[in-house]
Write a structure and sequence with these properties.
It is built from 23 helices and no strands. The longest helix has 21 residues, at about 65-85. It has helices spanning about 5-15, 20-25, 30-40, 45-55, 60-65, 65-85, 90-110, 110-125, 130-145, 150-165, 170-185, 195-210, 215-230, 230-250, 250-270, 270-290, 290-305, 310-325, 330-345, 350-365, 370-390, 390-405, 410-425. The protein is elongated and about 110 Å long. Helix 16 packs antiparallel against helix 17 and helix 17 (about 290-305) packs antiparallel against helix 18 (about 310-325). By secondary structure, the chain is mostly helical.
């Protein structure tokens, strides 16, 4: 990892090959001249560098590489190493490595990599949930990214700071930084529509939290507009049709090109999770606005996107859909989706989502005054909450169970209330 001058490189290579000054000099120059070069006391011609590189078995480019160039290559590699440490949650190793890189960056004025190091320190502090320190490092990184006119990293820094402000419920600060990010995005060459959708959904959420539903709606409409323009399926269908026609007339190479283009478009659309996250946010905002149809529409979009993966986005969309149909009074449809959620949670051994599915069943039967069936499902929820070891959920379930027993058994009602209250006291909730 040593950063060497030209003379230091020549001397190191000569020593490694057990070569004397005279042997390296040969008939080309004198040993004294080689000594001067090794001590960086003498300049060399390109022809002489070619001779020395040949004798030492390295390229001229290697010998010509300046300390600044070497330091850039070394820090690039060490930054990648630090990123691996962070991904593997080896945060102390990452921090130690980054501090070493920073010293090299300072010495050789590598502002770009200095910015990246501060960005990585921000990531580390996010993982540690030290968000004030994370903001400090993101802002420090931002200064260097702006200095180097690195628009992608400038955009990411603004978004990362804004996301932290969202966690802190500092929506005004979050909105300001999201709008800064929008300005960068508008001036950049980024054409990824999903990036715009994600940003617009965050801006929309901020406006909603700040009590400005009209502005929130304005950005939701922008997302709708992008959706209408994003006719990927139509583009794929046209390419496939063209490919088939070319294939039928024997133009195999052209046909293959069309099929490949169609495949590339489909593969680009594979970032479903990010899109699902955007649509879930949209769904929640419409729910807060009281627009049940839009809440259901965006939840259904998430479900359609993720139903094959059966991941957390699919499950959250299912619960949104169930909630929507319950509010619309279409309980048979709600129960159909509830069954899907329950089957998926059991199949994937996800106790939390199994609990949520059973809770919906209990609530639906209670709304139909089928109290005994509701109690049966609530007891199943309690058993799962015990496995999850979630005291807050468990306490709430006992209180609900007490309410259900109010017209059936006063003894059971009191017993459930007591269990719930004791648990809330233990959790310092009451």
């Amino acid at each position: 990892m040593n950063i060497l001058s030209l003379g230091e490189k020549i001397k190191k290579l000569r020593k490694e090959q057990n070569m004397t000054l005279k042997e390296l000099a040969g008939d080309r120059i004198t040993a004294a001249q080689i000594s001067h070069i090794e001590r960086d006391k003498s300049h060399t011609s390109y022809e002489l560098l070619e001779y020395l590189s040949s004798k030492l078995g390295v390229s001229v480019d290697y010998l010509l590489e300046t300390k600044e160039m070497q330091s850039k290559k070394i820090t690039d590699n060490l930054i990648l190493k630090s990123e691996i440490y962070i991904k593997c949650d080896e945060l102390e190793n990452a921090e130690e490595q980054i501090n070493e890189i920073i010293e090299i960056c300072k010495e050789y004025k590598l502002t770009e990599n200095y910015g990246k190091c501060n960005n990585l320190l921000a990531e580390i502090n996010c993982k540690k949930e030290d968000y004030s320190s994370a903001v400090y490092y993101y802002e420090k990184a931002l200064f260097y990214f702006i200095k180097n006119e690195d628009k992608d990293d400038i955009y990411s820094s603004y978004v990362n700071i804004a996301n932290i402000y969202m966690l802190d419920k500092f929506y005004k600060g979050a909105l300001t930084h999201f709008m800064f990010a929008k300005e960068v995005l508008d001036e950049s060459d980024i054409e990824d529509v999903d990036v715009y959708k994600e940003l617009y959904s965050k801006i929309s959420e901020c406006y909603m939290k700040l009590g400005k539903p009209q502005k929130s709606l304005e950005f939701m409409e922008k997302i709708d507009k992008i959706d209408n323009q994003d006719s990927v399926k139509e583009e794929v269908d046209i390419l496939v049709l063209k490919a088939k026609n070319l294939l039928s007339i024997g133009k195999y190479t052209e046909s293959k090109e069309c099929f490949n283009k169609a495949l590339e478009i489909i593969e680009k659309e594979e970032n479903k999770n990010r899109l699902a996250k955007v649509y879930l946010t949209m769904s929640e905002i419409y729910s807060e606005m009281g627009d049940l149809d839009k809440h259901l529409e965006y939840s259904q979009k998430v479900y359609d996107l993720t139903k094959r993966e059966e991941n957390k986005y699919m499950m959250e969309s299912l619960f949104n859909i169930i909630e929507s149909y319950v509010k619309k009074g279409e309980e048979d449809t709600a129960q159909k989706y509830c069954k899907l959620a329950l089957v998926s949670s059991i199949k994937n051994k996800d106790k939390y989502y199994e609990y949520k599915s059973l809770k919906f069943y209990s609530d639906m039967y209670r709304s139909k005054d089928e109290i005994e069936t509701s109690i049966e499902y609530l007891n199943k929820c309690i058993e799962i909450a015990k496995v999850l070891e979630d005291g807050k959920i468990l306490a709430g379930l006992y209180i609900e169970l007490g309410k259900l027993y109010s017209n059936i058994s006063k003894e059971k009602e009191l017993e459930c209330y007591q269990k719930g209250v004791v648990m809330y006291k233990d959790l310092n909730i009451i």
